[in-house]
């Protein structure tokens, strides 16, 4: 194990039951954080993900089940996180994609992708940032994509959500730029 500079910190990583999100959760655990996971998977997959985060060095790991397409479910997840420990680090990694030309994109698919890829990040930030600012410490990492900078055909909701996520991150960074101090580490988006 490396340096445990996140000892005593609590992190949430959405989309963390597999892939990039799980690797991020493991790295945070390896740095000493308590890590809350959220994502899709069978009971066995979720248990394996939790075990891998603890094996990486997390002092504690928990799974917070929430449908990120539902704002109320995100609010409940964030309340459960607050009850478990204040959110020091939030990594918004959950993302879904569907490809089709704009004229063939089902409206429900558009709504789902925007809700999961963009609105869920807004809701986690809306609920976590005030506490981070109040404590003078916090980190929000929003995982976008090259599609937050350039477009591709047949990916209208994905590209729109990732452009939106980049813009949301920039606005939040400006809003919290003066929070905290060098001693506390401040609040960073």
What's this entry about, in short?
With 189 residues, this protein is an alpha/beta fold.
Task: Note the topology.
Elements: E1 10-14, H1 19-30, E2 34-38, H2 43-56, E3 61-63, H3 71-84, E4 89-92, H4 107-135, E5 137-142, H5 156-176, E6 186-188
Parallel strand pairs: 1-2, 1-4, 2-3, 4-5, 5-6
Describe this structure in words.
This protein is α/β, with parallel strands linked by helices and about 190 residues long. The chain has one domain: NAD(P)-binding Rossmann-like Domain (Rossmann fold), CATH 3.40.50.720. It is built from five helices and six strands. The protein has a six-stranded parallel beta sheet with strand order 3-2-1-4-5-6, with helices on both faces. Strand 1, helix 1 and strand 2 form a beta-alpha-beta unit. Helix 1 runs parallel beside helix 2 (about 45-55) and helix 4 runs parallel beside helix 5. The longest helix has 29 residues, at about 105-135. The protein starts with 9 loop residues before the first strand and ends with a strand. The model has no long low-confidence stretch (mean pLDDT about 95).
